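Why do we bother with a discrete structure alphabet at all? Because it lets us treat a fold like text: something you can write down, compare, and reason about line by line. To make this less abstract, here is a complete entry for CoA-binding domain-containing protein. Read it the way you would read a sentence in a foreign language you are learning: slowly, and without expecting to understand everything at once.
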Amino acid sequence: MTDMQSAARAFFTFPTFAVAGASSNPAKFGHRIFAWYLAHNLPAVPVNPTCSSITVRRKTFDTVASPSKLEDPKNTGLSVITPPPVTAQLLREAKEAGVRAVWLQPGSFTERELEFAVREFPGAAVGGFAEGTVGGEGWCVLVDGDAAISAAEQERGRGEKL
């Protein structure tokens, strides 16, 4: 298992998830990724400072404005679908709030943000083009999430601590 595969597995050991950049617009990846969490029956909170709620799959969800507003940041994995300058600030806020795992979606980072994430969220930062992804755009929850969930479930089934 590669380091990034291990990080993806660790990401899905968290009981709750947040999606920074979540949107009501079905054409946006923030919408698609939030919908992916819902389709997998994973508890997810939309993070969007520009609106108080979003609608996905005909249901309305209240948003939080930043990672610092999450109910339990230490037990929340944060998926990031924002432009790199926003991602840089978001990662700093997430670290200060106590978030311990992040998944940087393709297009949400430059090398600078990825390096920060890998350094500040050790063993639980997913992103980039490291070996193990099956997608041509890099590590993406829409493409690599199912395998990461399966790996996390297998580890839990063996009683191994991640």
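What the structure line is telling us, in plain words: The CA atoms of residues 87 and 108 lie 6 Å apart. The radius of gyration is 14 Å.
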